Amino acid sequence: GEATRPQRWEEMTYAWQGSPGDALEYLEVFCNPNAHVSAFDAQVLVTVRTAGGVAFVGEQRLTTFLDDIEAVNQ
Q1: What is the pTM (predicted TM-score) of this model?
Q2: How many whole angstroms separate alpha carbon 29 and alpha carbon 3?
Q3: Does the pLDDT of residue 8 top 90, yes or no?
Q4: Can you list the positions of beta strands (E) in the chain?
């Protein structure tokens, strides 16, 4: 049979910039599901920066990240 290419997914990026005086200055979420064997293994890179100059960069499995977002919205 003819070989088929796996489906390619769009990179997902969400960036938010706070207003002057906001405690949260910057938030970015990035995921490239094509960089992993399957979408279930995809990782999300999260960057957060506060007005006080504290920066956090973390990585989490996409499925866990989505579960956490759903839990917060319930």
Answers
A1: 0.74
A2: 34
A3: no
A4: 12-17, 24-31, 43-50, 55-61
